[in-house]
Write a structure and sequence with these properties.
single chain, Aspartate Aminotransferase, domain 2, Aspartate Aminotransferase, domain 1, alpha/beta
């Protein structure tokens, strides 16, 4: 059996509560469910190969020109397509971070340099990272917020990184898949596409709208020619009729999104306070999950209670004793805390 490198592996164990995946605790919005159900009638036809309506609506929502937008079968497909299109000789990945960047980097013969963020810094990027960005680097993956830590990159530092990379012709891929759970604004909400042609932003519907089984991600690329190069690496009809219907409906869920941000903030604070009462270290963060450190074998104890969390011992830069838990409903969060006690 293959080793588990992601959360959400509910298929090998009997699970009643899954805290290993970081999706919206409110579940799929009803209008999104209805749209997917209604789209079944169209599944006897091919989906729109250009998913034109979805790209138009994403562009209007984020104020990005349509020719700079691509959609993918989840963010993971886009990471791979970016690497294929860029043909990098050297890739830099700060760690600990999402395994998908390493998986994407390994589709080529590129050298991969892992930059270890320090525990004493809360596993945050600091100005020291700038020295890692030299002329021999072609591509860097950044997560904002970081997974599994949940912290965000300080705004001025992120700008300095993108400026330095632009000067050295380094492509910067910024994963913003969890950003909507925070109160921070996206990079292309505060900077122009034209100013940063070397920056690619990747987002997904997966987490915010609780539809990981649908597989729907998208990107914004500052360089229109690079956008076309990435498009050439994507399969035709890579967005299903059901996924497009879900995305179109999701973008109307403004109230749902606003409610989510406040709820995550409140429940995250609750979990942090309760865990710290048990002398479990919680690292600072803003996303809909928390990184913990404890000597107690939490994974095994919770699994016996049919609760699944993410054992982070296999993350580069982490070791035994690190765990990640999602922020879920208050009732579910209370059950988690009661089970740990």
């Amino acid at each position: 059996m293959r080793s588990v490198i992601h959360g959400g592996d509910i298929y090998q164990n009997e699970i009643e509560l899954d805290f290993s995946v970081n999706i919206n605790p409110f579940g799929i919005p009803e209008k999104v469910k209805e749209a997917m159900q209604e789209s079944l009638e169209l599944c006897e036809h091919y989906p729109d190969i250009h998913h034109a309506k979805l790209i138009e609506k994403i562009g209007a929502y984020y104020h990005i020109p349509e020719e700079h937008i691509l959609c993918g079968n989840g963010a993971s497909e886009l990471f791979v397509a970016i690497v294929h299109a860029t043909k990098p000789r050297k890739i830099v990945i700060p760690v600990p971070s999402f395994y998908g960047y390493e998986k994407a980097a390994n589709v080529t013969e590129a050298e991969i340099s892992y930059y270890e963020m320090k525990e004493k810094d809360g596993f945050c990027l600091t100005e020291a990272f700038l020295q890692e960005l030299q002329e021999d680097v072609d591509l860097v993956f950044l997560a904002n917020p970081n997974n599994p830590v949940g912290n965000t990159i300080e705004d001025m530092l992120l700008e300095k990184i993108c400026d330095r990379c632009r000067g050295k012709k380094i492509t910067v891929v910024i994963d913003e898949c969890f950003l909507e759970f925070t109160r921070k604004r996206g990079f292309f909400e505060t900077h122009s596409l034209q100013e940063y042609p070397n920056v690619i932003i990747v987002k997904a519907f997966t987490k915010l709208y609780a539809i990981p089984g649908v597989r729907l991600g998208f990107l914004f690329c500052g360089d229109q020619n690079r956008t076309e190069q990435i498009l050439n690496q994507l399969p035709e009809w890579n967005i299903s009729t059901i996924a497009e219907a879900a995305g179109l409906a999701a973008l109307d869920e403004t109230e749902y999104c606003n409610k989510t941000t406040s709820y995550i903030e409140k429940e995250r604070a609750y979990l942090k306070a309760e865990l710290e009462k048990m002398e479990i270290k919680v690292y600072p963060g803003e996303a809909d999950f928390l990184l913990l450190k404890t000597e107690h074998p939490l994974y095994e104890k919770l699994l016996r209670a049919k609760i699944l969390i993410r054992d982070c011992g296999n993350y580069r830069g982490l070791s035994k004793g690190y765990y990640r838990i999602a922020v879920k409903t208050h009732k579910e969060n209370e059950k988690l805390i009661a089970t740990i006690l």
